[in-house]
């Protein structure tokens, strides 16, 4: 998008002390003329020619180039608000990873079985990425068998009394509270579904509401209902009530995360957008890292179950966001884009005062009075809201958003495939849970660290394309190379088989770590990419679509576990094919680095794919011709009966030397043109 309203594209209004020397505005670089001065009056026509009027470009549509710089740019006020958007990111990280502890599978020992077997133990399943793991059914001989969909499951799980022990920090959670094992294990996955499904609906609904009613109402509404439903979860009396309330908790959590993300993006100038967003990502990963410690602190509290204390501890910090009703204003960018000009005027004066910007003049020439006169002329206009549905009437914008939705879905979906391949089935249960959890968190930290220099060097599109290529290569190598058969002779069959298993395991872990790293980067960058290219009037809805697609990708994990990982290989193959499709589609995306945020749908349409060559180098691709045919034109059909006299006269007129035209003042040429009927 090439509409660049930098410092220097508007007129500064207001009087100055010296009428002889017109000062210049640092935002426009032009001389400032006060209304009513003789120099500013129109001159009479000279030689019969009327000078062309050059309309003054509008300032209000150019928020990054004119409005925000006149208010102090990314000043103290904006930085304080960005910090306020960082604080809840830590609490959101707690809530998003609470399933690992509230719904963790325990070690189970049957104290009083219904059959003759006694004292057989079930080992907990592998600790996987969001969604938990399948319930394990013990056989009569004490071995472990996964699954609970067989007809013999009821017989193998027949037990009057269970002794369940957790190894994830809590001494009791939802699974141990209501004995959700064997035949009731499917309820655990429904509880995991509820939070993710609620988040998906929340992203879609709250995104539209943020575009229609504003970012601030959605933020405050989400905080209030997050406290209500989140604290109610801690007092659930059965798993059905727990799952239902978790759905609404996820709904409000999605609205909270989306509104904060949009507000943070809209507060920043182009140079600050990515860095401020990555700080929030680091804080969310910090919540993931601190979650085991928080769970350990909630263990063995008197009067309440551990999982209830943990839920209350996770939700209670959101009380700190209640003062946001007064501390956090509405997005100025959204107010201007939707023509809420009266509210915009009051907010602009407030921001200028907070940033200590003089509303009349500044020594540097940057003043709010450059923008306020135009704003005064627009006060009579009524607000205009736009729904995300109008995106379908665009030519390029909807394609860009669909591409980013597929990228987000693929990134989170294949992340589960890599995480499952990384698990070691022979590891000890307790060590497996903690090791894999911290491995995932460490990969997330490494991803955030790698994104900063990668995006700085290659840009948004280049970084996204690079990480998607790495994801596709890791996926294809894991599916292809690790399943090929090693050729070996009969004499070394057993030795080669052992070497094959060892090599396969090592390569599988290596490719899984690389794939988790790159897929996490793809998901994070796709969400940020969408926030940059989606216009302000529908940014909430567009970002909600991409975040909802990410939720669908995360939803594949509990779905696969509910079916006992049946069809896992096909699941991985499908997402590997999606990565190849995404690589092709990513080439169609624009590069928004350093560009102002689009405000209207028309601005969003100007975000198109740039050519690979520099514009000044494209003419080198054209073959150089010997003759000059620039003046050769086709003769219109209605002029063919005149014998081409008119066309010949026009051609002769075009061939008159410029020096002759200047010497005659254009009179001879004009007379000849009139005589020939031009």
UniProtKB/TrEMBL annotation:
<feature type="transmembrane region" description="Helical">
    <location>
        <begin position="219"/>
        <end position="239"/>
    </location>
</feature>
<feature type="transmembrane region" description="Helical">
    <location>
        <begin position="309"/>
        <end position="327"/>
    </location>
</feature>
<keyword id="KW-0812">Transmembrane</keyword>
<protein>
    <submittedName>
        <fullName>Solute carrier family 22 member 23</fullName>
    </submittedName>
</protein>
<feature type="transmembrane region" description="Helical">
    <location>
        <begin position="251"/>
        <end position="272"/>
    </location>
</feature>
<dbReference type="Pfam" id="PF00083">
    <property type="entry name" value="Sugar_tr"/>
</dbReference>
<feature type="transmembrane region" description="Helical">
    <location>
        <begin position="509"/>
        <end position="531"/>
    </location>
</feature>
<feature type="transmembrane region" description="Helical">
    <location>
        <begin position="568"/>
        <end position="589"/>
    </location>
</feature>
<dbReference type="InterPro" id="IPR005828">
    <property type="entry name" value="MFS_sugar_transport-like"/>
</dbReference>
<dbReference type="GO" id="GO:0016020">
    <property type="term" value="C:membrane"/>
</dbReference>
<feature type="transmembrane region" description="Helical">
    <location>
        <begin position="543"/>
        <end position="562"/>
    </location>
</feature>
<keyword id="KW-1133">Transmembrane helix</keyword>
<feature type="transmembrane region" description="Helical">
    <location>
        <begin position="278"/>
        <end position="297"/>
    </location>
</feature>
<feature type="transmembrane region" description="Helical">
    <location>
        <begin position="193"/>
        <end position="213"/>
    </location>
</feature>
<feature type="transmembrane region" description="Helical">
    <location>
        <begin position="437"/>
        <end position="457"/>
    </location>
</feature>
<feature type="transmembrane region" description="Helical">
    <location>
        <begin position="464"/>
        <end position="482"/>
    </location>
</feature>
<keyword id="KW-0472">Membrane</keyword>
<dbReference type="InterPro" id="IPR036259">
    <property type="entry name" value="MFS_trans_sf"/>
</dbReference>
<dbReference type="GO" id="GO:0022857">
    <property type="term" value="F:transmembrane transporter activity"/>
</dbReference>
């Amino acid at each position: 998008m090439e509409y660049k309203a930098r410092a220097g594209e508007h007129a500064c209004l207001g009087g100055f002390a010296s009428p002889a020397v017109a000062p210049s505005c640092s935002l426009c670089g032009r001389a400032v003329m006060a209304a009513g001065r003789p120099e500013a009056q129109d001159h009479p026509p000279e030689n019969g020619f009327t000078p062309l009027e050059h309309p003054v470009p509008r300032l209000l549509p150019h928020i990054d180039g004119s409005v925000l710089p006149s208010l102090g740019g990314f000043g103290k006020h904006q930085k304080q608000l960005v910090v306020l958007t960082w604080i809840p990111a830590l609490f959101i990280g707690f809530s998003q990873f609470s399933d690992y502890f509230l719904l963790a599978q325990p070690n189970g020992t049957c104290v009083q079985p219904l059959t003759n077997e006694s004292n057989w133990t079930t080992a907990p399943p592998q600790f996987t990425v969001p969604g938990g793991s399948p319930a394990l059914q013990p056989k009569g001989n004490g071995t472990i068998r996964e699954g609970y969909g067989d007809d013999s499951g009821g017989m193998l799980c027949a037990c009057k009394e269970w002794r369940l022990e957790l190894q994830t920090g809590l001494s009791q959670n939802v699974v141990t509270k209501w004995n959700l094992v064997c035949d009731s294990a499917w309820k655990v996955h429904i509880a995991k579904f509820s939070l993710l499904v609620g988040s998906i609906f929340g992203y879609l609904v709250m995104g539209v509401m943020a575009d229609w009613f504003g970012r601030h109402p959605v933020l405050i509404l989400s905080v209030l209902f997050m406290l209500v439903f989140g604290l109610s979860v801690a007092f659930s009396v059965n798993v059905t009530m727990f799952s239902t309330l978790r759905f609404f908790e996820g709904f409000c959590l999605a609205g909270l995360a989306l509104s904060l993300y949009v507000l943070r993006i809209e507060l920043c100038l182009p140079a600050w957008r990515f860095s401020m967003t990555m700080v929030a990502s680091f804080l969310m990963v910090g919540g993931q890292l601190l979650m085991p410690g928080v769970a350990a602190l909630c263990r063995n509290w008197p009067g309440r179950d551990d999982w209830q204390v943990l839920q209350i501890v996770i939700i209670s910090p959101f009380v700190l966001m209640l003062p946001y009703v007064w501390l956090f204003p509405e997005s100025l960018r959204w107010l201007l884009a939707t023509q809420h000009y009266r509210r915009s005027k009051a907010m602009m004066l407030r921001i200028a005062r907070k940033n200590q910007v003089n509303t009349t003049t500044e020594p540097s020439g940057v003043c709010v009075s450059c923008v306020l006169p135009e704003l005064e002329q627009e006060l009579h206009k009524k607000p205009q809201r736009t729904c995300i549905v109008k995106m379908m009437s665009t030519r390029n914008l909807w394609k860009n958003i669909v591409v980013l939705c597929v990228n987000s879905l693929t990134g989170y979906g294949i992340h589960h495939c890599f995480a499952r391949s990384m698990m070691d089935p022979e590891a000890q249960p307790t060590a497996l849970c903690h090791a894999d959890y911290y491995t995932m968190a460490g990969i997330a930290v490494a991803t955030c660290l790698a994104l900063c220099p990668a995006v700085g060097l290659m840009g948004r599109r280049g970084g996204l394309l690079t990480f998607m290529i790495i994801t596709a290569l890791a996926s294809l190598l894991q599916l292809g190379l690790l399943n090929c058969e090693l050729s070996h002779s009969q004499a070394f069959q057993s030795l080669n088989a052992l070497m094959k298993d060892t090599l396969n395991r090592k390569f599988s872990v290596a490719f899984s770590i690389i794939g988790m790293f790159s897929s996490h980067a793809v998901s994070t960058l796709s969400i940020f990419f969408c926030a940059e290219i989606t216009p302000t009037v529908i940014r909430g809805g567009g970002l909600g679509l991409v975040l909802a697609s990410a939720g669908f990708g995360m939803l594949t994990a509990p779905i696969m576990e509910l079916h006992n990982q049946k069809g896992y290989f096909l699941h991985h193959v499908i997402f590997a094919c999606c990565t190849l499709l995404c690589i092709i589609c990513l080439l169609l995306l624009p590069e928004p680095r350093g560009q102002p945020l689009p405000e209207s749908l028309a601005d969003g349409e100007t975000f198109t794919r740039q050519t690979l060559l520099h514009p000044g180098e494209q003419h080198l691709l054209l073959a150089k011709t010997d003759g000059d045919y620039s003046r050769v034109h086709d003769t219109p059909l209605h002029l063919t009966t005149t014998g081409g006299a008119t066309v010949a006269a026009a051609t002769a007129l075009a061939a008159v030397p410029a020096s002759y035209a200047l010497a005659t003042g254009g009179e001879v040429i004009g007379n000849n043109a009139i005589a020939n009927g031009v």
